[in-house]
Amino acid sequence: MSSFPGPAYRTPNRGPKWFIRSGDCPIYGRLIAIFGRTFYACHMAESSKTVNLALEVLRRVPDAPNPTATGLALDLGTSRQAVLRCLHSLEQFDMVYRDEAGWVLGRGVLELAHRATGALVNALRPTLTNLAATWNETALVALPVGNQAVAADQVMALGRMVRIDYAVGSAYELTVGAHGRAILAFHPDRDALATSASLLGEIRSIRKRGYAVSHDEIERGVTGVAAPILDTTGAAIASIGIVAPSQRVSHLGELAGAIVAAASHATRQLSANETTVLLHQDLVRR
């Protein structure tokens, strides 16, 4: 017989059946309430730590010297198992994926970045449309996200049987392609990001003439010409240019001049809208 008469509380149907009575024990109810609140607080604290770790893993992936679960765990000072759980969760939402070198940012991050850069893309749309119409080739705007150039908007050529479709969200290292190197040449960390002496020399040439050119790099038979769009500090917040079949790029100097003029116009336009520029400076720094 229990020494605490009162209503009985039966445990769930696991293990042996037993009863607890609380009628004459006022402390008991309070202990249960305190336990419940403490358990909830601990659960929320653990959930918050997990979210924080996942976000920190996501931030470290693009710049990690060893972007594996082990390397990221060492970098973050936590266990490999915890990092791996975060990576698998992020992978489910296309935030990361694994290639032969390790973990890299996925299309989900690029899509979020594209949404966050809507104001800038909308501001550049008229200039992009005019460039595409003037040359009847695909015009492209790319934005720096981490160490990559991400295609943020394009206006395709009209009335062409053969034309370039540069999918929005496509991303390549800043060292690759005209749009990437146009940004890299005016990137705050350009000296650190350049991977060779020849690339450093090309960066100096791009800064001098104001535009970058690529042939057969991202796609065979395609030429890209791009110029940087700068913020008030002189750092590239975007690049604008033309991608076209190489056989149709016969007046490179004239085309490059038009692209530099378009980029300069966009730079002046955005300098008058400080909010739009500030919105994207963090993307450049990262």
Topology:
Elements: E1 8-10, E2 19-21, H1 26-60, H2 69-76, H3 80-92, E3 96-99, E4 102-105, H4 107-116, H5 118-135, E5 138-145, E6 148-155, E7 171-173, H6 177-184, H7 190-193, H8 197-209, E8 212-215, E9 222-230, E10 236-245, H9 252-271, H10 274-285
Antiparallel strand pairs: 1-2, 3-4, 5-6, 5-10, 6-7, 8-9, 9-10
Please characterize this protein's 3D structure.
With 286 residues, the chain is of the alpha+beta class. It has 2 domains: 19-105, Arc Repressor Mutant, subunit A (Orthogonal Bundle), CATH 1.10.10; 110-285, Beta-Lactamase. The protein has 10 helices and 10 strands. The strands form 3 sheets. It has a 6-stranded antiparallel beta sheet with strand order 7-6-5-10-9-8, with helices on both faces. Strands 1-2 form a two-stranded antiparallel ribbon. Strand 8 and strand 9 (222-230) form a beta hairpin. Helix 1 (26-60) crosses helix 3, helix 2 (69-76) crosses helix 3 and helix 5 (118-135) runs antiparallel to helix 9 (252-271). The model is unreliable at 1-24 and 275-286 (pLDDT under 50).
Short recap of the structure:
The chain has ten helices and ten strands.
Q: What is the top-level CATH class of the largest domain?
A: Alpha Beta
Main sheet overview: 6 strands, antiparallel
The global form is elongated
CATH topology (level 3) name of the largest domain: Beta-Lactamase
Instruction: Count the domains.
Output: 2
Kindly state the percentage of residues in helix.
40-55%
Which architecture of the largest domain does the CATH hierarchy give at level 2?
A: 2-Layer Sandwich
Extended strand count: 10
Counted by DSSP, the helix tally is 10
Mean pLDDT score: 81
The CATH superfamily title of the largest domain: GAF domain
The main sheet orders its strands as 7-6-5-10-9-8
Terminus-to-terminus distance? 68 Å
Look at the helices and sheets and give the structural class. Answer: alpha+beta
Task: Give the SSE string.
Answer: EEHHHEEHHEEEHHHEEEHH
